Amino acid sequence: MRxxxxxxxxxxxxxxxxxxxxxxxxxRAFEARSAQGGPLRYRLIHTGQHYDAKMSGDFFEQLGIPxxxxxxxxxxxxxxxxxxxxxxxxxxxxxxxxxxxxIVVGDVTSTxxxxxxxxxxxxxxxxxxxxxxxxxxxMPEEINRMVTDAITNDFFTTSEVxxxxxxxxxxxxxxxxxxGNTMIDTLLANLDRLQKPPFWDELRLEPQRxxxxxxxxxxxxxxxxxLAALLMAVGAGAHxxxxxxxxHPRTAKTLKEIAELPVNLHFVDPQxxxxxxxxxxxxxxxxxxxxxxxxxxxxxxxxxxTLRNSTERPETVTMGTNELLGTDPAALKxxxxxxxxxxxxxxxxxxxxxxxxxxxxxxxxxxxLAA
Length: 371
Ligand code: UD1
Description:
Blueprint (H helix, E strand, L loop, with lengths): L7 E7 L2 H19 L4 E7 L6 H11 L6 E2 L7 H18 L4 E5 L3 H12 L3 E5 L11 H11 L3 E4 L2 H9 L7 E3 L3 H9 L20 E4 L3 H4 L2 H14 L5 E4 L2 H7 L9 E4 L4 H10 L2 E4 L3 H9 L3 E3 L8 H4 L3 E3 L7 H9 L16 H13 L2
Parallel strand pairs: 1-2, 1-4, 2-3, 4-5, 5-6, 6-7, 8-9, 8-11, 9-10, 11-12, 12-13
Helix pairs in contact: 1-2, 1-7, 1-15, 3-4, 4-5, 9-14
The protein binds uridine-diphosphate-N-acetylglucosamine.
């Protein structure tokens, strides 16, 4: 990516699976605006935090994200190793070509590492999904959010709760851009393209007659006893329905050590975007410890049970279809009984989760960087 006279280069950072659906609509909006003669250009940088086809490449392909201009290829490692590797790689990239802004999304290690690197080189930082907080410092993502937001110049926010969190820490209104949710841009753009996964017929899945399960939080999946107890409770709570469980690589490591598992649990590989959301759309309910999935279930109106004690996305609970059950497996039975008795809430879609967030972000960027 070379700057041409009059153009302004913005770095867009992506590192791990939940980043890819968040950057896709921003890139589309950059391309649409530059085709109309706008001055902004992007340099897409993949940190390589996730590198498997199933965790990364499939998402680029399905969501039409162009190949990155640069891949830092940091790979697996401890949090400190990944953070350090990404910082060294991105610093080199910025020394070779300085950008006008570094846009980071979400809350993964790559988000924090690139924000620190950019700000130390006096490159302005924009954080998409800034301001959300779970309050739980045992989650690495919460540390990433807090550190990133402490050194962010421009916050692109998904909710009024995020705006209020930022104001409370002294952020001024002109730094807060309430634009909505890029993850929902991607969902709405792909709802008509969702694909039945190849195992659908083999498992005899029928709409509304199965449950989707995802678990990858260290607190839930790193201990063999904890994971086994949760899986037994999910299996029992499903009232005889099959449970489809796309297994995250972190979870797969613990799963190998568990001898006895419920027979209605079906383990499948991490699913590509279109197949995963096909499953969610047609599920009776989703049981998860993810944050992003609770936003997607809210928009699709699918009942969602979250196996965590806190959420950084409270509007999925106050407005949407999500309920926080905590991490005690005993909480699953009463919640599942309520679901099967038809007593789950309907939910509504939060403001500005309307599929137009990518263009709103680029409009703000043009005002900030190219005025
Ligand atoms: C990371 C993010 C988390 C996000 C999750 C989604 C942080 C701190 N956490 O957690 O917010 O919800 O991704 O997946 O950034 N691995 C592979 N192949 C890959 C990537 C990872 O096998 O392509 C393995 C790693 O070697 C490691 C494990 O999966 O053993 C976990 O990966 P890692 O990226 O360290 O953290 P996640 O738990 O995936």
